[in-house]
Amino acid sequence: MKSAMIPRINGERLWADLMALGEIGFAEGRGVTRTALSDADLAGKTWLVRRFEEAGLEVRTDAAYNVIGRLPSRTPGARLVAVGSHLDTVPQGGKFDGMLGVLAALECVRTVRETGIQLPWDLEVISFTDEEGAHNAGTVGSRAMMGELRDGELEKSVKQGRLSFAEDLRRAGKDPARIGDAWRDPAEFSCYLELHIEQGARLESQGIQIGAVTAIVGIYRYLVTVEGEPAHAGTTPMALRNDALVKAAPLFTLLPEWVKARDPEMVGTIGQVELFPGATNVVPGRCRFVVEVRSQRTADMLHLRDVLMAYAAGRAGWLVETILEKEGTPCAERLIQAVADAATAEGFSCVRMPSGAGHDAQSLAAAGVPTGMIFVPCRRGVSHSPEEWIEPVQATQGCQVLLRTLLELPDRI
Ligand code: GLV
Ligand code: MN
Ligand code: MN
Predict the structure, then answer these.
(1) Do residues 112 and 119 make contact, with C-beta atoms less than 8 angstroms apart?
(2) What distance in angstroms lies between residue 339's CA and the mean position of ligand 3's atoms?
(3) Nearest ligand for residue 32 CA
């Protein structure tokens, strides 16, 4: 489509949607808690289905409870372009991580329909289930669609005593045994685009409006269980304890040292620790935690895995189970360029940059779907926090770049 003909998206309407959705699961001072398949997440999905229907999309939910809205083309034999992200949040998260991508895609559809543009390909807006990993590894809906789930992973939860993804999916009215029905041939997708907040401070600190994402970071995650022996905290002498937390504790400071020694750009985090039975007056009998490392380089993550496995193998009562081993994934060069060109044509400053956060885009890219991502800055780079924030103009700019990128895709992509 000729540049002068690219219509303007309605930024106020997009912002109103973001604020309305941001009320679902919101609590003052605690941000938005809409963890995957929780009641709030299901309410969010219902809300989205209605918005999709109002926008004239053909709506369905698949076996993984991904919400899919389709705008069919009138072109015979049309190919498929998909745009998406997720609506689930981390506990006490923000109103933009994921939601911006879904609602901006919806706004693009409305703009296309209102201006009477006929797209030469079918367009799908997809809101993927459990990107954040409330139950286990995350990016569950997009990996289900691309056939990347690991055997048995949906039956386990990284939080002991919590429902697994499979149980929560059943609670939501879907049969987890049929999750394979969510699979689609990656060849069906001619490309996938995702708009997202940067979740880092590079764009803001450099005063740049748009990031054209070059690659998405690799993520390896392991569930570590350290067994001790529960005992009375008042009557058990220190010399006679088998305290699981004390046994596990050295690893909490060793991990950052291992990571820093390997590569200054690599990151490693233990963000979730559970003690059992978890009482002030009981010596911990079990300590369970998740070790996560991220890098663009597989060799670095494999090295950290080997170091962790060797450490655990040499100690009694340690068990390490793999949750996720997802490689760093490049975006498609022609889509990186398309995003950069669209940003420039809109008059926005733009930089090419990798993503340190995981995204559903990664699942599609890993399956061979040509993938592009657009970043907009967020305040102080803060995300996964109630403090997460973007200005309305940043949402508008990102959405406008998304629309232009879409409309300037070649007819035969
Ligand atoms: C998702 O937000 C992730 O990077 O973990
Ligand atoms: Mn996200
Ligand atoms: Mn996130």
Answers:
(1) yes
(2) 22
(3) 3
The CA distance from 98 to 197, in Å, is: 8
Which tokens in the block code for residue 379? 């305040």
Is-contact 169 181, C-beta < 8 A?
A: no
SS3 category, 188: helix
Q: What is the pLDDT of residue 88?
A: 98
The token duo for 374 is 């657009």
Predicted confidence (pLDDT) per residue in 162-198, tens digit: 899 999 999 999 999 999 999 999 999 999 999 999 9
Q: Which residues make beta-bridge pairs with 224?
A: 289, 320
Look up residue 59 and give its amino acid: V
The rounded Å distance from CA 46 to ligand 1 centre is: 24
DSSP letters, 349-391, are -EEEEEESS--HHHHHHHTT--EEEEEE--GGG--SSTT----
Residue closest via CA to ligand 1's atom 3 equals 358
Q: Which residues contact 2 (CB under 8 A, 6 or more apart)?
A: none
Query: Which residue has the CA at smallest separation from atom 5 of ligand 1?
Result: 358
Question: Residues lining ligand 1, CB < 6 A?
Answer: 132, 357-358
Q: Cβ(397)–Cβ(346) under 8 Å? A: yes
Q: Which two tokens stand for residue 297?
A: 């380089």
Residues of the chain whose pLDDT is less than 50?
none
Q: What is the largest distance, in Å, between two alpha-carbon atoms of the chain?
A: 79
State how far the Cα of 16 lies from the Cα of 395, in Å rounded to an integer. Answer: 11
Query: Percent helix, strand and coil across the chain, each rounded to 5?
Result: 40, 25, 40
Q: For residues 63-90, b (16+ Cβ closer than 10 Å) or e, as one string?
A: bbbbbbbbbebeeeebbbbbbbbbbbbb
What's the rounded Cα separation, in Å, for the pair 293 and 300?
A: 9
**Distance between CA atoms of 273 and 302, rounded to whole angstroms?**
23
For helices 99-114 and 392-407, angle between their N-to-C axes, nearest 10 degrees: 60
* C-alpha 45 to ligand 1 mean position (Å): 20
Q: Which residue has the tokens 């997708």?
A: 189
The predicted pLDDT at position 160 comes to 83
The DSSP call for residue 44 is H
Q: How many residues does the chain have?
A: 413
